[in-house]
Design brief:
The radius of gyration is 26 Å and the shape is globular. 58% of the residues lie in helices and 4% in strands. It is built from 19 helices and 4 strands. A hairpin with a 3-residue loop joins strand 3 and strand 4. It is mainly alpha-helical. The protein has a 4-stranded mixed sheet, with helices on both faces.
């Protein structure tokens, strides 16, 4: 049930290895609480140290792993070590300093994330929104967490401690949808260390029958699940395979500027040559991220390209979470020194003069690509708020006025809160919308 509830996070990403490290850290932490020893403590420190270099989730994972130690401090173990001589006393002090350093680093990491959620880089990212806004995730999460609580209830001894650990893990999952896998792993740990029978709620259902019912329910839920679809393999429309191959085969010059959502694949496909401008390893207030934000938003595209000496740009045309068109796209199409040279599974622009054998493509191909990318986004389920407006803009630039009018009218009907930001387009088609409440990012 946990694996099913957390399935959106178990896709190819560095975070999957973080879940394995989380499981190892939880096993070591709960094992130490039962039978303390230096080997377990050293292994736990090594796991957290490795995790801190892999993925940002280490901060939350450190909290989940250190909580069992804080709730079962095993003072008897530390007193015994203190009496065994200077070397052991140094170890006790070192362990305390290491725990303090981990907690300080984790608190700073979490503080940065919370600050970014309050109007910063993370505020508009879908997966960073609270879990309860996504019923398709919240319902199976709640079912799995309830099952874990029933197991964690166990015998009276240690029940309060187990329930507190369960509540800490559930709270981690509720604050951000992206945490569902890590949170459910956290709920399993106190469930699996419990002894005795779970709570008796007046039910007398045989365990095999109950397990079979859960299994049937999961099979039915999986059959009805639209995301991900059935099958094994790669959904290549999500990755710029053709664009990556074209940059290398055509010998397009660097430096290359790419959007964040394609950076990971480009780094893999190019094996570092040419180097990517940004990918998932770079985040926060780094110079790359700030320049990318200013470039994509059309705030200072020319300045960013000049500072970076960019000769080639590879981009997806939409903000992934909102479906909004990147403002830099019409800017690039209007610049005489830049030429559109590819529009298949990503847009590629190159600075003139173009390399031999590379030809310029018509701007209409870029707008056809925008419609294609919007279709891919729509196929994933519920459409994001800006997607209809983006389709209307693409039809407008293609001269398909009736299609543009229909898209704008439908977008205003479904998401009137954003109509004011598209007032210029809507006015041209006689579609009325509310005035813009402020500047949009």
């Amino acid at each position: 049930l946990t694996a099913y509830a957390a399935r959106p996070r178990f896709t190819p990403r560095t975070e999957v290895l973080a879940y394995l490290l989380a499981a190892a850290a939880l096993v070591l932490a709960h094992g130490w609480a039962r039978s303390p020893g230096w080997r377990r403590l050293g292994a736990l420190g090594a796991v957290l140290a490795a995790w801190s270099q892999l993925h940002l989730s280490w901060a939350a994972g450190a909290g989940l792993a250190l909580a069992p130690l804080a709730l079962s401090p095993r003072i008897d173990f530390w007193r015994a070590q203190w009496r065994l001589g200077a070397l052991r006393r140094a170890g006790v002090v070192g362990a305390g300093l290491l725990a303090g350093a981990l907690l300080l680093g984790a608190s700073r990491q979490l503080g940065g994330v919370l600050g970014a959620l309050r109007g910063g880089d993370l505020a508009a990212i879908t997966e960073m929104q609270p879990l309860w806004r996504f019923p398709s995730l919240a319902v199976p999460f709640g079912a799995a967490a309830a099952g874990a609580l029933a197991l964690a209830w166990g015998e009276p001894e240690g029940r309060l401690r187990r329930c507190l650990l369960w509540a800490l893990a559930v709270g981690l999952g509720l604050v951000a949808a992206r945490n569902v896998a890590l949170a459910l792993l956290g709920t399993l740990a106190p469930a699996l260390v419990a002894r005795g029978r779970g709570p008796q709620w007046g039910l007398r259902i045989p365990v095999p029958l109950l397990a079979g019912g859960v299994g049937v329910a999961l099979v039915v839920a999986s059959a009805l699940d639209r995301d991900p679809p059935w099958g094994v393999g790669v959904r290549w429309e999500l990755f710029p395979r053709d664009a990556a191959a074209f940059v290398r085969s055509a010998g397009l010059p660097g430096p290359v500027l790419n959007t964040l959502d394609v950076g990971g694949y480009l780094g893999w496909a190019w094996a570092g040559q040419p180097p990517t401008f940004i990918d998932g390893r770079v985040f926060g207030h780094s110079p790359q991220f700030q320049d990318l934000d200013a470039w994509a938003a059309g705030e200072d595209p020319g300045g960013v390209l000049a500072r970076r000496g960019t000769r080639t740009a590879v981009l997806r045309a939409l903000y992934y979470s909102s479906g909004r068109l990147l403002p830099v796209l019409p800017w690039l199409l209007a610049q005489p020194e830049w030429a559109l040279v590819r529009a298949t599974d990503a847009l590629i622009f190159a600075r003139r003069p173009l390399p031999e054998g590379v030809t310029e493509r018509a701007p209409a191909e870029a707008w056809r690509y925008v419609l294609w990318e919007a279709g891919v986004k729509a196929s994933e389920g519920a459409e994001p708020a800006h997607l209809g407006y983006t389709r209307g803009i693409a039809h407008h630039h293609l001269g398909e006025r009736e299609k543009a009018r229909r898209e704008f009218a439908r977008a205003v009907g479904e998401h009137p809160e954003w109509a004011g930001f598209y007032g210029g387009y809507l006015g041209a088609y006689g579609v009325e919308g509310a005035p813009a409440p402020g500047r949009m990012r």
